[in-house]
Amino acid sequence: MKTKKKTASGGNRSEKRFNMALTASGGFIVVLLFAVFATLLAAAVASIKEFGLFFFIGKTWDSSTETFGALPFLVGTLCTSFLALLISIPFSIAISIFLGEYFKEGAVSTFLRSAVEVLAGIPSVIYGLWGLFLLMPAVRLLETQIGAPPHGVGIFTSSLILAIMIIPFSASIGREVITLVPGDLKEAAYSLGATRFEVIKNIIIPYARSGIIAGILLALGRAIGETMAVTMLIGNSNFLPTGIFSPANTMASVIANEFAEATGITASSLIYIALVLFFVTTVVNIIGTYVIQKVSIESSKEVT
Amino acid sequence: MKDHAGARLIKDMIFKCAVCLFAFISLLPLYLILYYITKNGIMVINWDFLFSLPRPIGESGGGVFNAIIGTVMLIILSCIMSIPCGIAAGIYLSENKKGKLSNTIRLCVIVLQGTPSIVIGIIAYLWVVAPLKTFSALSGGIALSIMMLPVIIKTTEETLKLIPYHLKEASLALGVPYHRTILKVILPSGISGILTGILLSVARITGETAPLLFTAFGNQFMNMNILKPIDSLPYRIFYYAMSPYPEWHSFAWGASFILVVLTLALNLFARGISVKWKIQF
Amino acid sequence: MENTVLKVENFCAFFGDNKILKEVNLSVSKNVVAALMGPSGCGKTTLIRCVNRMHELIPGTAISGKMTLVNEDIYTMQPIVLRRKVGMVFQKPNPFPTMSIYENVIAGYKLNGIRIPRGELDNIVEQSLKKAALWEEVKDTLHRKGTFLSGGQQQRLCIARALAMDPEILLLDEPTSALDPKSTSQIEELFVELKKNVTMLLVTHNIAQAARVSDFTAFIYLGELIEFGPTEKMFTVPKDKRTEEYLTGKFG
Fold first, then answer.
1. Domain C4-247 class?
2. How far is it, in rounded angstroms, from Cα C122 to Cα C144?
3. CATH number for the domain including B52?
4. Helix (H, G, I), strand (E, B) or coil at C145
5. Please, which chains are in contact with A (at least 3 CB pairs closer than 8 A)?
6. Which domain holds residue B88?
7. Which of B5, B211, C54, C72 could form a disulfide with B143 if both were Cys (CB 3.0 to 4.6 A apart)?
8. Low-confidence residues of chain A: pLDDT under 50
9. Which of B1, B10, B11, B13 has the highest number of chain C CBs within 10 A, making it the mutation to test binding with C?
10. Residues B121 and B242 in one domain
11. Cα dihedral across residues A125, A130, A133, A139: positive or negative
12. What is the pLDDT of residues A179-194, one digit of tens each?
């Protein structure tokens, strides 16, 4: 910026202003994020002081006696998001391979890709509605079949809906990293007499592994933070879940259910949960994004 | 040295079939969701549903007019607050590719994008609702604009990065000041990408419910005052879906139909723009 | 001829509506280096990719005519079986980055799911690397990833990978075009050494390279095989005017 010469129209001053506006907008983002963190911390301080780290192992969440332990919600979040991940992985990897290797272009590929995009664009609350009126009766039926208490709502139902919701994310990232696998490596493998399956198993998947894992990680981040659909389907129970069909609450859903009416230490404890949620998703996202950036930088180096 | 080419080829076929099967099974939910929304939604949609206000339970009929208006207002509010800042920050990132501030901003954008919407709802509550002591459209707009910002910044940066450097040089060589070069040459060249980004981010926030739960809240009356609670389509769906009344359930489907059509139209429109308005270099 | 390894008869290749190869006839006998030269885009790479049917990986290609490998019709074999009998080395060195040097050499067996006792594998690795003149340089780092090697070493690793399958013929698609002069001359020396045991079909746009390493040379121009014969003869008394013009640098 210093090297820019003064222009005839005396633009130097407006140039400075312009640059300042740009920098200020950029800086605003940093301040915004810092303010988010500081606000959460400040509002959670009362609860942090009261419960400290015992918050994470306390099993009771009771606003009438003002004892708050977040363990049921931690367990709820862990169970739903990992179960969802487990269900979604075969599907998202299949879609990634389908779009990234078998059908890179053509009508089938365009159809599947746009369908996955539509799936990603459907609002969370609609997934919740659909789950409530279709998935829930189906799960209830399953529960009566296997002799579990027929709640219909609970960890399993929420995991199913979460799995459907996160498939598009890990699939689109998976597709991208699979298309990044250099063609000459695949050719080398074919020239040695490998079948397509062997090329996928031994060349493509190992090469794209870190990117695929990063995609799954980012999907996990979404599953952890996902609120509406889970709130509608998890059954809103503040006790430790006893099995995968048991009603529960996740960190996000307990906030959604209780924050509007919460005051004092209850509100502070809910914000404490929000702070933990913020922290966890931040870590997961930074790691995932970092890995993906590294993968794409490496492959762009190979091309040049 | 003899191997079983036949067996290996069969394995190859089986794997391919499995991949196709799994890929298409994952479309089943999409099909079912769209089917049920259309089937249950289209029945409820009529003039009355679109253009009248909700009625209390016991009276039949009523509509979601206030929710549609509320959603539009929330979108306008959040666009006003996020677009200028988002584009400016995007320009900053594309003009300063390296540097401590740029890297910090990029990191913040990533973090902000991954922040759960419910957390952003709490933030807007603490910043706006608590001091003003009332739920308000303004607080909802702020929550949604925080969600839009990272998307706009990212797409702006990525679009501008693709604009060839010689375009800028050509303008600077004509003696055009730097800021005019950016505003009159670079930004117009990237307009399709930036607009696409804005539309996609609008599509994303249109369906957001979680950040509105304790900000815009919900309101069964028409409201135009941004300092008062306001209704929105996603909130109305949530409210109706969780109610025990079958008639309200069908209203929830109707509102869902409108919402899905709206978000899909925004998505389609965004893609159309990115194709149609694309400037060849 | 009895010791003909590769025989190409009336061979044509198409991409969409474009005829890339026109009526090519060619035969390569055992343990020689045959060079295919010509200006870029003339179809020489297409020709060798048709030998191991790699062209089938690109949709829209078609062929006509006949090609046989040791009296067996290439186009009636399973591609995966054929490709094990035909080794290929590419323009850019492309060792598998997820595998160690050792695994790279035996990649052909590993990918094809052929189980071989460890001792025999060790033997194959050592022999192949020795043939590719890489053994001395990598014998202590066999289990490190192949990507830290220099470009020339990587290319020799790729040659070892192809040799490990004990192919009937080795296809070399401009194998030195991405390498520096020193690595190039090392690889050219290697070809002369390899000729004792392996038949090689070398694509090159470098006239001097064809002269240095090949026994027979084919000149291809616009998809047509203009001339094919002993290298020495072609470089001294070319039959066709176009060959002469190419050799003297009038075009290409």
1. alpha beta
2. 15
3. 1.10.3720.10
4. strand
5. B, C
6. 47-276
7. B211
8. 1-10, 303-304
9. B1
10. yes
11. negative
12. 999 988 999 999 998 9
